[in-house]
């Protein structure tokens, strides 16, 4: 998937606080806000985050039938999705 050349238009709350460090770990974000805040040039979008939610890969908060995500939940999702690189052929697994 190609990376976007320009960022998506910033939602108003993200435009007011564009640095992820300005957000608390448990602050609620819409999928569009989370994508714009953490991946302004891609590769993840609001649609990607909705797909991750439907697949059970990210924890969400549901209030009044609205779905939100937190920076902490996104960090957990990323950590759980991290996979070790496969061993290169011809190399010993223990590095010797």
If you had to describe this structure to a student in words, what would you say it looks like?
It contains four helices and two strands. With 96 residues, it is mostly helical. It has a domain at 22-79. It has a two-stranded antiparallel ribbon. The mean pLDDT is 90. This is DNA-binding protein.
Report the total helices. 4
Rounded mean pLDDT score: 90
Within the largest sheet, what's the order of strands?
Answer: 1-2
- Quick one: overall form? globular
Strand content: 5-15%
- CA-atom Rg in angstroms: 16 Å
> Runs with pLDDT <50, length 5+?
none
**Oligomeric status of the shown chains?**
single chain
How many extended strands? 2
- Helicity, in percent? 25-40%
The major sheet is characterized as: 2 strands, antiparallel
Reading the helices and strands in chain order gives HHHEEH
Alpha carbon gap, first and last residue = 36 Å
What class, by secondary structure content?
A: mainly alpha
Keywords:
96 residues; mainly alpha; two-stranded antiparallel sheet
Sequence-ordered SSE layout with sheet pairings:
Layout: H1 12-16, H2 31-38, H3 46-54, E1 61-63, E2 66-68, H4 71-81
Helix pairs in contact: 2-3
Give me a quick take on this structure.
With 96 residues, the protein is mainly alpha-helical. It has helices spanning 12-16, 31-38, 46-54, 71-81; strands spanning 61-63, 66-68.
């Amino acid at each position: 998937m190609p990376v976007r050349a320009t960022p998506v238009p910033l939602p108003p709350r993200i435009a007011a606080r564009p640095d992820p460090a300005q957000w608390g770990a448990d602050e609620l974000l819409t999928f569009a806000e989370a994508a714009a805040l953490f991946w302004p040039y891609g590769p993840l979008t609001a649609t990607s985050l909705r797909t991750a939610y439907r697949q059970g890969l990210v924890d969400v908060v549901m209030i009044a039938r609205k779905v939100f995500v937190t920076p902490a939940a996104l960090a957990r999702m990323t950590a759980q999705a991290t996979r070790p690189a496969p061993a290169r052929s011809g190399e010993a697994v223990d590095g010797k």
